[in-house]
């Protein structure tokens, strides 16, 4: 039994382990391999200089058997290629391409990676997306025979040959069919990104290369001549989706390789993919197709992001930041200078942004990164009062489409009066035209600690990637645990910090709030069942009932704001609205259990789901 189990483990080793074995075992067996080789038409290759670390030259062109599949938007049946030509017959392309291609239109060249081919679904999806949106020519470079699993080291060496062949194809089209090289855009995934880099180095004046999670093993931190680099085209943009350490399942490169490098969700692992370390263990048990599916989830997200980005309605705005951690803390969000921010994916070349960019995406398709930062201002207090619990918000848009987000990172998160809670969220792209928000505070109930039964906030604001905001200010809004409240959202920022500063300076306005175009009010009237205040429904305390004894009349509160509680409660604010209590949860969401675990749910009014 033990022997059989060991055999099973060996046979079903995950792709990650296979790469490590290849790197060390196969490498040292190549001492007998040739250190140089010359092939007809493509020229000579050797292992001297920066190429010595791989220790082998590419296979012969006949062994790699590179083929070029040409598609044109002029053709009504775009699912079949105009031409499917082997490299050795490449000259036959010149005659047909001149007739079938629209040489004045952009030409997109897709280069697949290790263990792939042009017949893979992702290539079809990317090609279709490009041709649906842009009048263009598409060429897929199929080098499947040179990228066969599990010989990764050999495939890495073959990228030099494939890059040379791609360059020869484009130069031939330029000379024979008048195809402008400056209209050519190479799109390479994994090893294909480095093959595209080799092609760009040969062409010199290529307009653009997009690297989709360029392969890390055997390329990262090597000489720029041996990998994709910013000098390979006039504009090189890179999406890093799996830049984790190899031993933890990282197959992509973390190192910046372009003019602009995007790191969605941090660039190491992706939301919605299984944990890399745990996934490697479970991969031992399951069959090969499932193994590669889970192991490559993070790696493959790069081409999924790019394909989604082709659609004009699916943007991936990104911002420069010192680190991903700083980005998550909201220190770099929203974009403060549009000239320094980018748009990951197909439209990246429309932005002047350069350097490292960070963004969040959705964890399932569509991955569009319509990001917002949520800020919830807890009411101030004279004392360092804390509670334990979680805060959830439900955003409502047009047609009552709504989605749920958990703002705190756990069920027993520490909440402090006077502090601001922040979280960057990514709503479904169908959720537009926000008009109201439902906020729910849930006190933690544990063996050793419990949260307070009520919690108080002053302000909610939602800011998109470009600084556009919607907000609501409700001074001392008290929320009973597990009882949601619904508030309208108004365009602009209701400027709570500015009002507090005005209080400190004694400048209290008694007129219309010009920032929001709304009349101002004094005392707030809310549902008496939610307030620990007077029986007439008038809130006379800026803190929850179980905190009012500690905060009311405190000199500390006065010192903080420059005024007392009663003056604070009479600050001019936005229009006051009735607080509506609604049942907890989202009654339209058929996957409530899943939403509770992930902190999210998405529904359309009267529907059981929303098409992806």
TrEMBL record:
GO terms for molecular function: lipase activity. It is found in: Secreted. It holds the Pfam family Lipase. Keywords: Secreted. The keyword RNA-binding does not apply. Its main location: secreted. InterPro entries: AB_hydrolase_fold, Lipase, Lipase_N, TAG_lipase. Residues 56-367 form the Lipase domain. The keyword Secreted applies. GO terms for biological process: lipid catabolic process. GO terms for cellular component: extracellular space. Residues 510-542, 585-612 are annotated as: Disordered. PANTHER family: FI22312P1, LIPASE. Belongs to the AB hydrolase superfamily. Lipase family. This is Pancreatic lipase-related protein 1. It comes from Sipha flava. The lineage of its organism: Eukaryota, Metazoa, Ecdysozoa, Arthropoda, Hexapoda.
